[in-house]
Amino acid sequence: MADIRLEGVGHSYDGGRTWALKPMTWTWQSSRAYALLGPSGCGKTTLLNIISGLITPTVGRIWFGEREVTGVPTAGRNIAQVFQFPVLYEEMSVYDNLAFPLRNRKFPKKEVDQRVRQVSQLLGLDQVLRRRSRRLDPGRQQIVSLGRGLVRPQVAAVLLDEPLTVVDPALKWTLRSKLKEIHRDTGHTLIYVTHDQTEALTFADEVVVLNDGAIVQAGEPAELFLSPSHEFVGHFIGSPGMNMVPAEIAGGVVRVGAAGVGAAPDGLPPGPVRIGVRPEFVRIAGPGASPGAGATVTGIDRMGAYDLVHTRVGEHPVIVKTEAGSACEPDAAVFLHFPADRTFLFRDEVRCGSL
Ligand code: ATP
């Protein structure tokens, strides 16, 4: 197994007028579990298909270790793929479906049996190995597809494109942790495409966030949550996403309207910025807590496990996530504390400092 390296890889479906994937240079490290996360249409599937060889990129080169594979078709890349919907031989038994990728590559019978039993046990398929695949419900069929993707040792990568879409939500949690277990066992390089942040954050060693055809940030789940380097990551990760308050730097002070919120970081030129702070870190505090701002409560969502207190700083909404049973009432005047180490400034969507 080797790193997968993209050098200036980009793709346009319309002869270069628009780029579904903007030219990028990026390395997928061997044996790591990646989630490729982004909204619909941001280019996730295009990127995955370029790695698998289903699409030849318009520009750039791809390397699997020292071997260049840019023009090599899928069959020559030693890749395993799992798609959104089951891809199975319906008349074959579950066992034969799982064994197929191994038999096809002439693995010894004993090893085939060993691998099939191991994977089927981990995925909870051991009771249905003799059943014909078409007799399973679609969710279970998709688990067999997942097993087929994971059964081969020594693949260059396992590419999974929203593989749990048709699986029952309750079962998704179990499968994600099984997938992690299988990954620990096999050391495959996994690239898992999803638009669902929960899926990405629970599963991956590293989350690669894609927006509008470009990687905006990559990192461990905690890093993306605690330290977003781009407004998009602040919005897209978190529930609800990061509060973004338009502000101005003038005279060494960060201001929302006329009110000073805190000192401007050294060296940041005057001009517009946005203050980004997650609902989890804003505190309702006594007046004068610095940095911070006066606000008015506009409503409260009592979610059971926690409350979401909706406030307004000037005309800008700021949500505060507090313990359940908050004493706040609508229309109350409160003071919000923005902890300096968790409050960032963004300019042109890119982080440019802390408050
Ligand atoms: P989704 O989650 O909805 O599948 P995605 O993030 O996987 O989206 P892609 O399917 O890679 O995104 O699409 C990226 C962009 O390229 C989109 O604007 C899409 O409309 C466009 N696109 C994808 N496939 C084609 C194609 N075969 N021909 C023309 N445009 C395409």
Write the layout of secondary structure elements.
Blueprint: E1 4-11, E2 21-28, E3 33-37, H1 44-52, E4 59-64, E5 67-68, E6 79-82, H2 94-104, H3 109-122, H4 138-150, E7 157-161, H5 169-186, E8 190-194, H6 197-203, E9 206-211, E10 214-219, H7 221-226, H8 231-236, E11 243-250, E12 253-256, E13 259-263, E14 271-277, E15 283-285, E16 292-302, E17 306-313, E18 316-323, E19 333-337, E20 343-347, E21 350-354
Parallel strand pairs: 3-8, 3-9, 6-7, 7-8
Antiparallel strand pairs: 1-2, 1-4, 4-5, 9-10, 11-12, 11-14, 12-13, 14-20, 15-19, 16-17, 16-19, 17-18, 20-21
The structure holds adenosine-5'-triphosphate.
Keywords: ATP-binding, Cell membrane, Membrane, Nucleotide-binding, Transport
Organism: Nonomuraea longispora
Protein name: ABC transporter ATP-binding protein
List keywords for this structure.
alpha+beta, 2 domains, six-stranded antiparallel beta sheet, elongated, binds adenosine-5'-triphosphate, OB fold (Dihydrolipoamide Acetyltransferase, E2P), 8 helices, Rossmann fold, six-stranded mixed beta sheet, 355 residues, 21 strands
Describe the structure.
- This protein is α+β, with helices and mostly antiparallel strands and 355 residues long.
- The protein has 2 domains: 230 residues, P-loop containing nucleotide triphosphate hydrolases (Rossmann fold, 3-Layer(aba) Sandwich), CATH 3.40.50.300; 112 residues, Nucleic acid-binding proteins (OB fold (Dihydrolipoamide Acetyltransferase, E2P)), CATH 2.40.50.
- It contains 8 helices and 21 strands.
- Helix 2 crosses helix 3 and helix 2 packs parallel to helix 4.
- Bound molecules: adenosine-5'-triphosphate.
- The site of adenosine-5'-triphosphate has 11 residues, from helix 1.
